[in-house]
Amino acid sequence: MTIDEDLDKLLDNLPFFIKEHLNNHPHKEKLMEIVMDLGRRPEARFTTGPEYISQKIISWQDIEYTTKRISKFSNDNRAGIERTLHRISCIRNRQFLINGLTCRVGRAIFGTICLARDILESGQSILILGKPGVGKTTIIREIARVLSDEMEKRVIIVDTSNEIAGDSDIPHPGIGRARRMQVSQTDLQHQVMIEAVENHMPQVIIIDEIGTELEALAARTIAEKGVQLVGTTHGNCLENLIKNPPLADLIGGIQYVTLSDDEAKRRGTQKSILERKAYPAFQIAIEINEQNLWTIHENVKDSIDLLLRGNFAITQIRQLTRSEKTIIKYKTLPTNKLAKNSTIPQKPISSIRKSWVNINIENDIHSINLKQKKLVIYSYSLSYNLLKEVIARLEVDIILTKEIKKASLIIGLKKHLQQNKKLQKLAKQKNIPIYGVNRSSIYQVAKLIQFIML
């Protein structure tokens, strides 16, 4: 990865005693923020942790020295330094005088999107989630460069606080050929998002920090016009969006539905349940757990439905090692706390089974027996390599066999299993349950095996 940070341009605008200390600091390249609060010692925050950088107390003169050398603060109390990506945020007292500064180091890191390059090429809309300071803005800046320069798409960045492309009328080269639209007031971001689509014919729109209901609605409107979206929002995981009403529209919206008695009985749920209202504005979600560790939801629609029902969901974990190799694993999400702690009903095992076809078993006795001994699976019309890959990813103790008599379970494609009456008869004689899946996909087979191993 290549890093372009212009750190000296930030340090040149700080008081001399802070600049001198940081220039000689051994972890200078790991600097994230510098905090200057009136009457307190200056503090530097590194990726390794915070530390005081001087015995001297910050005075009014020190704060004034810095504020006079940067651009003017906008209505969101943010400012910047010309032609750089650094951001300075201020804290004001009751008389609106600045008595504190947070100077965040902005870096253009080329190569950060290598973990999800294939996802960008899919052309689907991507939502990036993560807590503050985890690097969401750095990631979408690199996404803008890759999409515009390497994939030659028409990209528009809606830059509310000039954090993506820098505090200047001339955008930072870190965004490549992407164009940038500045937002005069933070509460007008949703209007600029719509204006970008109507006036400039983009193929991709990039938005940082979607935080209000109007912005979520604008994102849905853009998605319905066929434009690819890449956006960020605060939150550790998809569950945070379910619990956040203003942003729920990003994932399709959540509504209460009252079922009839017959339907509730058929589903095995309560009569009043939560369901997704519409299709999500974003098809893919990326949770930034750490700088080089991401959780990817390849289908937001399915993930939200499973979370609301309280079922398990299989997500993809991608990690970049020190040797710059990408490791991809599959992980089963734990049962959703929402389904346990609220009125959202947890779907019972009997209802989960309806996701697959149980060809010849009518009761639960055989399912119970499966959990009491080691599983030996006979595959019919499913690739052995596919099954081996699923078993390896789920890290479960299962043996594959090519002899039906040794099997404790038979799985295969539903349409082929239903046509083979001889196999059904033999399985019935040997008391072997048969399960069929609709498609030969890793996702469906993994869900079935995970259910069997519960």
Summarize the entry for a quick read.
The chain has 17 helices and 24 strands.
What structural keywords apply?
Rossmann fold; Beta-Lactamase; 454 residues; alpha/beta; 17 helices; 6-stranded antiparallel sheet; 9-stranded mixed sheet
Protein described:
This protein has three domains: 2-104, Beta-Lactamase, CATH 3.30.450.90; 108-347, P-loop containing nucleotide triphosphate hydrolases (Rossmann fold, 3-Layer(aba) Sandwich); 355-453, 3-Layer(aba) Sandwich (Rossmann fold). Helices cover 31% and strands 26% of the residues. Helix 6 (189-200) runs parallel beside helix 7 (213-224) and helix 14 crosses helix 17 (442-453). The radius of gyration is 27 Å and the shape is elongated.
Q: What structural category do the secondary elements indicate?
A: alpha/beta
Give the CA-CA distance, first to last residue: 42 Å
Question: Total strand count, please?
Answer: 24
Name of the top-level CATH class of the largest domain: Alpha Beta
How large a portion of the residues is in β-strands, by DSSP E? 25-35%
Q: Give the name of the CATH architecture of the largest domain.
A: 3-Layer(aba) Sandwich
Helix and strand layout, with pairings?
Layout: E1 2-4, H1 7-11, H2 16-23, E2 31-37, E3 43-46, E4 49-52, H3 60-67, E5 78-80, E6 87-92, E7 98-104, E8 108-110, H4 117-121, E9 126-130, H5 136-150, E10 155-159, E11 179-182, H6 189-200, E12 204-207, H7 213-224, E13 228-234, H8 238-242, E14 254-258, H9 261-267, E15 272-276, E16 284-290, E17 293-297, H10 300-309, E18 314-320, E19 326-332, H11 337-341, H12 349-352, E20 357-358, H13 365-370, E21 375-380, H14 384-394, E22 398-401, E23 409-413, H15 414-419, H16 421-429, E24 434-437, H17 442-453
Parallel strand pairs: 9-13, 9-16, 10-11, 10-12, 12-13, 21-22, 21-23, 23-24
Antiparallel strand pairs: 1-8, 2-3, 2-7, 3-4, 5-6, 6-7, 14-15, 16-17, 17-18, 18-19, 20-24
Helix pairs in contact: 6-7, 14-17
Protein name: AAA+ ATPase domain-containing protein
GO molecular function: ATP binding
InterPro entries: AAA+_ATPase, P-loop_NTPase, PTPase_dom, Spore_III_AA_AAA+_ATPase
